[in-house]
TrEMBL record:
Entry keywords, A to Z: Amino-acid biosynthesis, Arginine biosynthesis, ATP-binding, Cytoplasm, Ligase, Nucleotide-binding
Organism: Acetobacter thailandicus
UniProt keyword Repressor, yes or no: no
Pathway(s) the chain acts in: Amino-acid biosynthesis; L-arginine biosynthesis; L-arginine from L-ornithine and carbamoyl phosphate: step 2/3
Catalytic activity: L-citrulline + L-aspartate + ATP = 2-(N(omega)-L-arginino)succinate + AMP + diphosphate + H(+)
Name this protein carries in UniProt: Argininosuccinate synthase
Sequence positions that bind L-aspartate: 126, 130-131
UniProt signal peptide: none
Residue sites binding L-citrulline per the record: 94, 99, 130, 134, 185, 194, 270, 282
Enzyme class: ligase
Gene: argG
Length: 413
């Protein structure tokens, strides 16, 4: 619980505000508890919801400074694409759709706080999840002396009943479906949607079809495959079927193609940074297509050892992003290495999308390291001397032969 002195010190706070029930309650709670001015910031990251109602709700609470911003292009260009250059998967499966959105929201909150002279920022993440860590690590990295208010760790509104009572007491509009227990919670942006909690808490029970927001079931997808091409420049996708597109437009189109073909569903039990395991249902249709396409173009443009080094670093990079350390020196160092590897990752990938599957059927690049003269089973015209393999094998077998000899003579391996 924040001390009264701390609360008196807060004059103006920038709240990450969605306009939903929770953040509307937080807005009013901040005004009453801290007796401070609240500035709201609502970001359009492609969640698919109308944002003007959030502005009107903020006005209803007497908020003077209201920021509603379309950050979709920035989100994809400066956050999603850099992450995909690393082929990032957390715990081998999760494409980090929620994790990658938090640093951008936090960065804009801090920038707005500077613009309006606010001395605090606030978020609506709970004390059990990862998002509180992601938001606050970003805040402190960008503004070390900022005051952070996390209402879920302070207030006594610890149940849905208390939350609704507070809302009604303070004339906060509550839609009818919010009066009961929500079957699960949803977070969405242009990269993905995630569903967690309530109905989904038992990992042994399959999710019902109503859970899925961004994809049709693979078995309901068309019986005919969809074929597309994706063009890459320096590791980033720039065109679909030869049509150049902005980052957000391209990801939007891939999402549409993925949805139509039942691509991108994931039922995952993951290890949260705060220590518990949690079960989530994730949908990342466009990202799933992009991952396969990017790996495919890298397969012909990256040197073997460069690719293997990059792949070995990916799990560490994924953990850094998952844990909310986007603005850390280690992320910047790894990003520089990853980006340096992408200069030659140019070309076109051909894909077949079919009932939940993304299948690469061709790849070509002006920077291709694939040489048919070397790999052919026909006459290679002297491009590769097969006799050289004997010495190569003998040298690589030397330690194995020595070990075997020691083993035959009674030694241990």
């Amino acid at each position: 619980m924040g001390s009264p002195a701390t609360r008196r010190d807060v004059k103006k706070v920038v709240l990450a505000y969605s306009g939903g029930l929770d953040t509307s309650v937080i807005l009013r709670w901040l005004q009453k508890t801290y007796n401070c001015e609240v500035v709201t910031f609502t970001a359009d990251l492609g969640q698919g919801e109308e944002l003007e109602p959030a502005r009107k709700k903020a006005e209803m609470f007497g908020v003077k400074d209201i920021f509603v911003e379309d950050l979709r292009e920035t989100f994809v260009k400066d956050y999603v694409f850099p992450m995909f250059r690393a082929n990032t998967l957390y715990e081998g499966q999760y494409l980090l759709g929620t994790s990658i959105a938090r640093p951008l929201i936090a960065q804009r909150q801090i920038e707005i706080a500077r613009e309006v002279g606010a001395d605090a920022v606030a978020h609506g993440a709970t004390g059990k999840g990862n998002d509180q860590v992601r938001f606050e690590l970003a805040y402190y990295a960008l503004q070390p002396d900022i005051t952070v208010i996390a209402p879920w760790r302070e207030w006594d509104l610890t149940s849905r009943t208390r939350l609704l009572s507070f809302a009604e007491e303070n004339q906060i509009p509550v839609t009818k479906d919010k009066r009961g227990e929500a079957p699960f919670s949803v977070d969405a942006n242009l990269l993905h949607s995630s569903s967690e909690g309530k109905l989904l808490e038992d990992p042994a029970v399959a999710p019902e079809e109503i859970v899925f927001q961004r994809t049709i079931a693979p078995e309901d997808a068309p019986d005919k495959a969809t074929e597309i091409t994706i063009d890459f420049v320096s590791g980033d996708p720039v065109a679909i079927n030869g049509v150049a597109m902005s980052p957000a437009t391209l990801l939007t189109r891939l999402n549409e193609l993925g949805k139509q073909n039942g691509i991108g569903r994931l039922d995952l039990v993951e290890n949260r940074f705060v220590g518990m395991k949690s079960r989530g249902i994730y949908e990342t249709p466009g990202g799933t297509i992009l991952l396969t396409a990017h790996r495919s173009i890298e397969s012909i443009t990256l040197d073997r050892e460069a690719m293997h080094l990059k792949d070995s670093l990916m799990p560490r990079y994924a953990s850094i992003l998952y844990n909310g350390l986007w603005f850390s020196p280690e992320r910047r160092m790894l990003q520089a290495l990853i980006d340096a590897s992408q200069h030659s990752v140019n070309g076109r990938v051909r894909l077949k999308l079919y009932k939940g599957n993304v299948i690469c059927t061709g790849r070509e690049s002006p920077n291709s390291l694939y040489d048919t003269r070397v790999v052919t089973f026909e006459d290679d015209e002297g491009a590769y001397n097969q006799e050289d393999a004997q010495g190569f094998i003998k040298l690589n077998a030397l330690r194995l032969r020595l070990g075997a000899q020691i083993g035959r003579n009674g030694g241990t391996l």
